[in-house]
Amino acid sequence: WPDILQLVVLNLVRSVCRTQPENKGKYIKLILALMSSQHTSVSYECANTLIQLSRASSAIRAAAACYCQLLINHSDNNVKLIVLGKLEDMKAQHTDILRDMVMDVLRALSSPNVDIKKKILDIVLDLLSSKNIEEVVLALKKEVVKVDDLSESAGEHRQMLVQAIHKCTVNFPDVAGAVVPLLMGFLTDPNHVSAMDVIYFVREIMETNPKLQQQVLELLIDVLPQVRSSRVCSCGLWILGEYSNTKEEIESALEVMKESVGPLPFFYNDEDDGILKLDMAETVTSVGGGGGSSSGPKILADGSYATVSATTMSAAVSFTSSPNLRALILGCDYFLASVVASTYTKLATKLLSLVGEAAANKEIAEAMLYIASLLRMSESGVVAHSIDPDSRDKVNVCLNILTSPSDASLLAECRTSFAEMIEEKHEEETRESQRKNAAPAVQPDDLIDFYHLKNTKGMSQIEMEDAVATDLSRAMGVSTDASKDGSENKVVQLTGFSDPVYAEALMTVHQYDITLDVYVENRSEDTLQNLSLELATMGDLKLVERPSPVTLAVGDAQVLRANIKVSSTETGVIFGSLVAGEMVIVLNDIHLDIADYLLDTSQLSDALFRTRWAEFEWENKVAVNTTITDPVQYLEKIIDSTSLTILGGDERGMKGLEGSCGYLAANLHCCSVFSEQALVNLSVEKKEDGQLTGYVRIRSKTQGIALSLGDKITLKQKSLAA
After folding, report:
1. Helix 77-93 vs helix 57-73: angle between axes, to the nearest 10 degrees?
2. Which tens digit of pLDDT belongs to each residue from 487-531?
3. Backbone angles phi, psi at 557, to 5 degrees
4. Radius of gyration for the chain, computed over Cα atoms and rounded to the nearest angstrom
5. Which residues of 144-180 are buried (b: 16+ CB within 10 A; e: fewer)?
C-alpha cells in the first residue's frame, strides 16, 4: 500500500477507537502491524496513535522504540526535533519504559546540530538510574573525546557534555573517579567557558568526594602551568590552597606556583638606557626537524683541503613563552595576583602548623617577597595601571596574616562558606526534582484492580494490558483525554453584530500549525450565493488550505476551515474579507500572540548567558512605561504575561530580590518552538516621584523573536496596573 492509503486507514482506526473505546484493543494489533511500514510518516503516526489510545506497557514500548529508530535513522533535523519533543512528553508518564532505551536515545548524539544534542542530553539526564549510569557516563566520555576541535561549535558541544557529566557525578558520586582524569585535560581548552565548567566541576568534586582529593590534586598540579585562562587559574589556585593538607601536597603546590609565577622581582633596571623594563622570564624553545650532520671539503689558508663536519637544524623554529601566571599578572590582572597571594598565604601558614616555624620561614619569606614585588611593580609605572583598591586590600590582609600567623581566619572561613553553598545547591536541586516528579495523589478508598480476576476470555495479551492500564489510570485520576495535546484555543470576532454576515474565528494554535474555524451566519434578508472567505497573511505565515465557497440561506450558519503554517515567531497578521457577489465585508485582523510559541526552557547558566549575550547580534530596546511603582512587582507582571524564565529558576532567582530597593536588574530567557532563543535584560530604577524608569533589552540570533517579544512587552506594560 502507498503511504497515503496507510495514513487513511490509520486515521479511520483512530476515529473508530474514539467512538467505540471498548473495542480499541482489537485495533491496536493493526496499528502495531502498520508500524513496520517502510514509510517514516506512517511509522511516526502509528507511534502517536498508540500513545493516544493505549496505556499498555508493550504498546508504549513499541512507540518509544519507533521514535528512537526515527531519531537515529532520519537525516532531517526538523524531524529529529519533533521526535525529541514527543519523547519529552512521554518522559512524564512513562519514565520506567524510557529508562530502558536511554542508550538508543544517546546514539543520536552523533548529530552535529547543537539544539538536537541539548535536547537529547536534557532527556537522558532525567532518565538516569543506578542501572544505566555507568553506560551513560561511558557514552558521554566517548562523545567528549570525539568532539572535533576544528569545528565552529566544538566549544559549545564540549561544554554541554561536561555539564552533563557533572550532573551525572552529582547524582551518582561513584562514577566521578572514571571521568575526572579525562576532564582535567580540558582545563587548557581555548574555549574558556568550557574550561570554566570543568574547573567548577573539579572544585565541587573536591568538596563532595574526599576519596578523589589526592588524585585530583596531582592532576591539577601537572596541568596548571599550561592553563592560560585567568578565571580557570584563579579557581585552580583556590583548590590548591584549600585542599592541600599534607607536607608533600603543600610543597608540590608551592613548587608549581613558583614555576608559574617565575623569578622575582617582576621588573629590572636596564643598564644600557637606564629605564625600568618588565622581566617576562621568557624561555626559548626550538621546534622543527631533527638535526643532521653534513660534511664536505673545505679549502684552508695554505690551499690544502680539510674535511669538516657540522650539525644543522632543518626548518628550525624558535619561540619565546612566559610562565602562565607571570604573563597574566604582568598584563595587569590584579585579581589573579591577589588570588596567588592568598594561596601563598594559605599554603605557608598550613606548612607552619605542620613542620614548625624554622622550616616554614623560607616559604613565608618568599610569599612576602612576592607580595612586595607585586606592590612595587604596580607603583613603578612600568605597567599600564596600578593595582585596584580591592586587590590591594586583599594583598595587605595576606601580608598581615604572614607577619602574624596566629590570626589565620582565612584558612577556615572560605572552605566553610563553599561547603554551605554546595549543600544549599544540592538541597535546591533535590526540591526541584521532587516537585517535578511528584506522583498524583490517590485516595485510600480508590479502586484496587485485581488483574487475575478480570474477564479476559477471547482477549489478546496486549488487549488485557491495555484494559488494566486504562482502569488503573482512571483509579489514579490521571487524565486519559487524548485531545489535550498542548493546543490553545482562542475565539476572535471578525465582523460586527450589525453586518449582513456575522463571523467569528476559533483559532487553534499547535506548534507549527494554525487551524482557523470561521463561523459565518447570514443575518441579511437575502440568500447569499457563493459566499467565499478570502484570506491573506503577513509575516512568516503561509495559507495552506483555502475554504471553499458556500451558499447561505436567510438565518443559516456554517463553519469554514482554513489551515495556516507558521515558520518563525515573527509578528504575524491574518487579514481578509467575506465576498458574495458585489457585497464585500472587511474582517478584523487576527494578530498572532508570541506567547503561543514560547516554551518552558531548561535553565541557563550565568556564563552561558553572558557568552550568548555577546554572540547574539539582534537587539531590541524597549523603554519602561508603566503605572506600577514597585520594581519587583513589575518584573513579576512581565514574567506572567510573556512566559519568560528568570535566570537561575523562578525560586532561586526571585529569592535574590527579597527586600526593598530603588533599582532592579534581572536576566531572563526563553526559547520558541522553532528553536529561536531570546535573552532579556531588565533594568529599572524607581525615581523620587515613585515612577519606574529604565529599559528592557532583548537580544536574539534572529530578528523575528526580538521584535515580536518587544512588541508583546510594549503592549502588555501599557495595560499593567499596580
Report:
1. 160
2. 445 788 899 888 999 999 888 776 667 788 899 999 988 888 889
3. -140, 155
4. 34
5. beebeeeeeebbbbbbbbbbbbbbbbbbbeebbeebb
Length of the chain: 722
> What is the C-alpha to C-alpha distance for residues 133 and 139, in angstroms, rounded to an integer?
10
Rounded CA separation 406/605 (Å): 40
At 139, which amino acid appears? Answer: A
Distance of CA 402 to the CA centre of its chain: 44
Would the CA dihedral through 377, 382, 383, 387 be positive or negative?
A: positive
Q: Residue 698: beta bridge partners?
A: 620, 680
pTM surpassing 0.85? no
Which cell numbers in the block locate residue 535?
Answer: 484570506
Pair 533, 547: CB distance under 8 Å: yes
Cα first-last separation, the chain: 63
Q: Quick: pLDDT tens for 637-691.
A: 888 888 788 886 655 455 556 656 778 888 988 887 777 788 999 999 888 888 8
Contact status, residue 258 vs residue 348, Cβ threshold 8 Å:
no
Distance of alpha carbon 219 from alpha carbon 277, whole angstroms: 35
Biggest distance spanned by C-alpha atoms of the chain: 131
- Distance, CA of 124 to CA of 108 (rounded, Å): 11
Cα separation values, 78 from 75, 84, 113, 675, Å: 9, 10, 11, 10
Q: CA 368, CA 347: separation in Å to the nearest integer?
A: 13
Paired with 538 in beta bridges are 573
CA torsion 105→111→112→115, rounded to 10°? -50
Distances (CA, A) of 407 to 349, 398, 417: 10, 10, 18
CA dihedral sign of residues 33, 36, 40, 43:
positive
